[in-house]
Write a structure and sequence with these properties.
This protein has 396 residues and is an alpha/beta fold. It has 14 helices and 15 strands. The chain folds into 2 domains: 148 residues, Aspartate Aminotransferase, domain 1; 231 residues, Aspartate Aminotransferase, domain 2, CATH 3.40.640. The two termini are 33 Å apart.
Length: 396
């Protein structure tokens, strides 16, 4: 199939839930993707913060080849070496005592909500069922995850969604304290919002949530599906706050492009769960667990995280220089290699014009350009990014 035939087949046979540009990607190398016409694109989307190690990583390729000749799937009715090893690694690298594997971030959110409500059920507090989430939040597209997603364009067309959700303003301490009442079983927050515009929760806000949750007996859940696993320069985005959650959800970069999510939790949460309370056929299977272990080991290496901090600092300087020279850039957000560039022109127009420059971008709202490149990006590629982004903004 040639380029036009592929696009026509997509339009003819696929459910049209995405507005895709008029090119077809077919291979990648490092931080670059190539289309069927041979054009090269610097990728600052990374599969929506998924491809942290870029494309054609040799260690990922090696484990894929090796595991393809071993176990791929046996279901969670049986033990496998790969799953146990990945769970142990995640526990050793985090606050958690236990791990549950899912197939996606949305599934991890669904499971986290179930865990929170099951804990209160075990404590004979069925009336304590409300979940507090925050304005600007995005937690997924399944019915529970969309119920705790504040952005109405994702939630309202599917109403009525799961009841028992209360939204509070992001980074508003007084409003959060008022919202987290005695009927709350859990508080769910992204330390750095992704779809919500790359807004960062302050350390003071996260600390206040932890204190209020302890006061009312609610669980604190961090959604690090997009901001976790090295993207901010530390392994977990919440590390700089010094605040520890009860539950954390991760996914996107965990599987190097293969579908996997995980729920990390304390023993107190795990104690509320009995065999049969939750499950998954595919989650954490031996093939994807073997791949994910390699990914986590590479990202968690001190030298790798130091690279993210160094190149993230260089990106920060370059973005500030861009803002100083380009009046259409009005605000910079985020941290490390998860950045938001607010512009006073349509972000979608900047994205489309960037494609013509050989640069892949993703938006986070009407006026935010989101930059989530592979974590292996180098200074020279940052320079290329800034040059092409500046030209796209100027043309917009």
């Amino acid at each position: 199939m040639q380029t036009r035939e592929i696009i026509d087949a997509d339009h003819a046979y696929m459910l049209q839930t995405y507005i895709r540009p008029e090119f077809v990607l077919e291979r990648g190398q490092g931080c670059y993707l190539y289309d069927t016409e041979g054009r090269r694109y610097l990728d600052c989307v990374a599969g929506i913060a998924v491809s942290a190690l870029g494309y054609a990583d040799p260690d990922v390729a090696a484990v894929i080849r090796a595991q393809a000749e071993g176990l791929i799937h046996v279901s969670n009715l049986y033990h496998t070496r790969e799953q146990a090893a990945l769970a142990q690694l995640l526990v050793e690298l985090s606050f958690a005592d236990r791990v549950f594997f899912s197939n996606s971030g949305a599934e991890a959110i669904e499971g986290a909500l179930k865990l929170a409500r099951k804990l209160q059920y075990e404590l004979h507090q069925a009336e304590k069922h409300v979940v507090v989430a925050f304005e600007g939040s995005f937690h997924g597209r399944t019915m529970g995850a969309v119920a705790v997603t504040a952005r109405e364009k994702y939630r309202l067309p599917f109403a009525p969604v799961m009841p028992g959700v209360r939204f509070a303003p992001f980074n508003d301490l007084a409003a959060a304290r008022a919202a987290i009442a005695e009927d709350v079983c859990a508080v769910l927050i992204e330390p750095i919002q992704g779809e919500g515009g790359i807004s960062t929760a302050t350390p003071e806000f996260l600390a206040a949530l932890r204190q209020r949750c302890d006061e009312v007996g609610a669980l604190l859940i961090f959604d690090e599906i997009q901001c976790g696993l090295g993207r901010t320069g530390t392994l977990w985005a919440h590390e700089l706050s010094g605040v520890t959650p009860d539950i954390m959800t991760i996914a996107k970069p965990l599987g190097a492009g293969f579908p996997i999510g995980a729920i990390l939790m304390t023993q107190a949460v795990a104690d509320a769960i009995q065999p049969g309370d939750h499950g998954t056929t595919f989650g954490g299977g031996p093939f994807i667990a073997a791949v994910a272990k390699v990914v986590v080991e590479k990202i968690a290496a001190p030298a790798f995280l130091e690279h993210v901090r160094e190149v993230g600092g260089y990106l920060d300087e370059a973005l500030h220089d861009l803002m100083a020279s380009q009046p259409r850039v009005t605000e910079l957000r985020g941290r490390g290699l998860m950045r938001g560039v607010q512009v006073n022109v349509p972000a979608a127009s900047v994205r489309a014009l960037a494609h013509e420059q050989g640069l892949l971008l993703v938006t986070a709202g009407d006026d935010i350009i989101r930059l989530v490149p592979p974590l292996i990006i180098e200074r020279a590629q940052i320079d290329e990014l800034i040059d092409k982004l500046g030209r796209a903004i100027e043309r917009a």
